[in-house]
């Protein structure tokens, strides 16, 4: 072991000896002067992380388990780094938090029964029932299924699938108002499944993440199935972001999205600790595709993945007539977690709410000192992930409390 490696090992041992949570440091971007006219220091640092550029300092630090957290300006007077430095962090996997600081969260996943409703108020009563239960159990998060709002189509005469989905977009404002008011009233974060929303001439399938503060983040579905394109004319979105909540950092992948490893990898790299997957599947084969992929995402990214779907049937709603689902919370497969990588799962095809406790500190300990450490053992020199997501600014909804107001009328 070289001198540099020995010094870094000594730092880690010292951090563990005094039970410190992390090492936070800066390091000169030594070769940045060679790129200053081509790229920003932030892009330079990111390319070092991806293995596209070898930096004598940052590359060495990354090999010793540090992660890039940002770029510091005016770090010191140095022509080689142009005064820029990386801000790096190493989390102590053996850190023992005081009991009051243990990062445990409670997640509730609704296995929602699709049934005929007579009005939006009837729909709202069913949703409120589940939010109330989740609150009674002290939940931090409540996950609803994908497109469970299609239940509203059962109150009207039969429409073609494309007519129905376009009519349903008229309910976007009352739907978001309902979810926002419930998140504020019950003081928990609601991942509102998903709902069709107009974007110009297009229709996006969007999950509204409603925080207790009244803040709402829209996360569109990125990958659209052949069925959604054919029957509903839905278009894929182009935004993906990690969301800061009072109980931790989360991401949302809507159903089919979890079958694409790069989407979950991006969220994990941006700091997500829990990935929520609202889904809608009509048979066991479709469900198992989502389930197996979600389990793989939990293992390869060392994150928790929570799923919630619809059950039951809507006989008069074309393309949503039957549902198959089983809510579950999945974990990495290691000693700190449940034996089979399943923290909890519901009985399939029964309306229920699944409640599960998760320890976020277990994730970080496993990432640094688990039986396997896939997040540390990646090969950026061989595989580079790129993304071109558009900026996503969280929406701030200021919806007054009280009655839901006039609702859209189908066929109008």
Under the CATH scheme, the architecture of the largest domain is 4-Layer Sandwich
Q: Structural class of the secondary elements?
A: alpha+beta
Determine Rg (CA atoms, Å).
Answer: 23 Å
Q: Report the average pLDDT across residues.
A: 90
Kindly report the name of the CATH homologous superfamily of the largest domain: Carbon-nitrogen hydrolase
Keywords:
10 helices, Nitrilase/N-carbamoyl-D-aminoacid amidohydrolase, Aminopeptidase, 15-stranded mixed beta sheet, 412 residues, elongated, 2 domains, single chain, three-stranded antiparallel beta sheet, alpha+beta
Topology:
Blueprint: H1 3-17, E1 22-28, H2 41-49, H3 58-63, E2 67-72, E3 85-91, E4 104-114, H4 120-136, E5 141-143, H5 161-168, H6 172-186, E6 189-191, E7 195-199, E8 202-210, E9 215-220, H7 226-232, E10 243-245, E11 248-252, H8 261-269, E12 274-279, H9 284-301, E13 304-313, E14 322-323, E15 328-330, E16 342-345, E17 352-359, H10 360-369, E18 395-396
Helix pairs in contact: 4-6, 8-9
Outline the structure in words.
- The protein is an alpha+beta fold and 412 residues long.
- The protein has 2 domains: 3-91, Gcn5-related N-acetyltransferase (GNAT) (Aminopeptidase); 100-395, Nitrilase/N-carbamoyl-D-aminoacid amidohydrolase.
- It contains 10 helices and 18 strands.
- It has helices at 3-17, 41-49, 58-63, 120-136, 161-168, 172-186, 226-232, 261-269, 284-301, 360-369, and strands at 22-28, 67-72, 85-91, 104-114, 141-143, 189-191, 195-199, 202-210, 215-220, 243-245, 248-252, 274-279, 304-313, 322-323, 328-330, 342-345, 352-359, 395-396.
- The strands form 2 sheets. It has a 15-stranded mixed β-sheet that branches. A 3-stranded antiparallel β-sheet has the order 1-3-2.
- Strand 4 (104-114), helix 4 and strand 5 form a beta-alpha-beta unit.
- Helix 4 (120-136) runs parallel beside helix 6 (172-186).
- The longest helix has 18 residues, at 284-301.
- Mean pLDDT is 90; it is low at 400-405.
């Amino acid at each position: 072991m070289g001198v540099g490696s020995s010094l870094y090992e000594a730092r880690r041992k010292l951090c563990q000896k005094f039970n410190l949570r992390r090492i936070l440091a800066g390091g000169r971007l030594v070769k940045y002067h060679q790129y200053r006219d081509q790229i920003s220091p932030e892009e330079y640092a990111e390319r070092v992380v991806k293995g596209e550029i070898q930096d004598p300092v940052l590359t060495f630090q990354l090999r010793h388990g540090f992660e890039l957290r940002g770029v510091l300006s005016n770090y010191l007077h140095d022509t080689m780094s142009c005064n820029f430095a990386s801000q790096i962090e190493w989390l102590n996997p053996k850190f023992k938090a005081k009991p009051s600081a243990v990062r445990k969260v409670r997640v509730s996943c609704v296995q929602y029964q699709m049934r005929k409703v007579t009005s939006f108020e009837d729909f709202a009563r069913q949703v409120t029932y589940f939010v109330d239960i989740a609150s009674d159990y002290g939940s931090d998060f409540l996950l609803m299924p994908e497109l469970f709002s299609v239940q509203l189509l059962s109150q009207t005469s039969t429409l073609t699938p494309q007519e129905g989905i376009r009519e349903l977009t008229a309910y976007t404002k009352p739907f978001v108002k309902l979810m926002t008011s419930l998140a504020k009233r019950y003081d928990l974060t609601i991942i509102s499944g998903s709902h069709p929303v107009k974007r110009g001439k297009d229709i996006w399938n969007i999950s509204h993440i409603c925080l207790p503060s009244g803040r709402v983040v829209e996360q569109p579905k990125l990958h659209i199935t052949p069925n959604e394109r054919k029957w509903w004319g839905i278009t894929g979105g182009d935004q993906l972001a990690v969301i800061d909540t009072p109980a931790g950092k989360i991401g949302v992948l809507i159903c089919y999205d979890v079958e694409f490893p790069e989407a979950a990898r991006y969220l994990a790299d941006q700091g997500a600790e829990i990935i929520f997957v609202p889904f809608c599947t009509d048979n066991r084969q479709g469900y198992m595709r989502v389930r197996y992929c979600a389990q793989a995402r939990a293992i390869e990214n060392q994150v928790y993945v929570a799923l919630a779907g619809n059950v039951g049937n809507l006989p008069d709603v074309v393309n949503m007539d039957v549902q198959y689902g089983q809510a579950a919370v999945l974990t990495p497969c290691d000693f700190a977690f449940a034996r089979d990588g399943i923290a909890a799962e519901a009985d399939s095809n029964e309306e229920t709410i699944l409640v599960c406790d998760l320890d976020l500190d277990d994730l970080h300990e496993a990432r640094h000192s688990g039986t396997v450490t896939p997040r540390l053992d990646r090969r950026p020199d061989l595989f580079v992930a790129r993304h071109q997501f558009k900026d996503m600014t969280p929406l701030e909804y200021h919806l007054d409390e009280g009655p839901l107001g006039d609702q859209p009328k189908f066929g109008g």
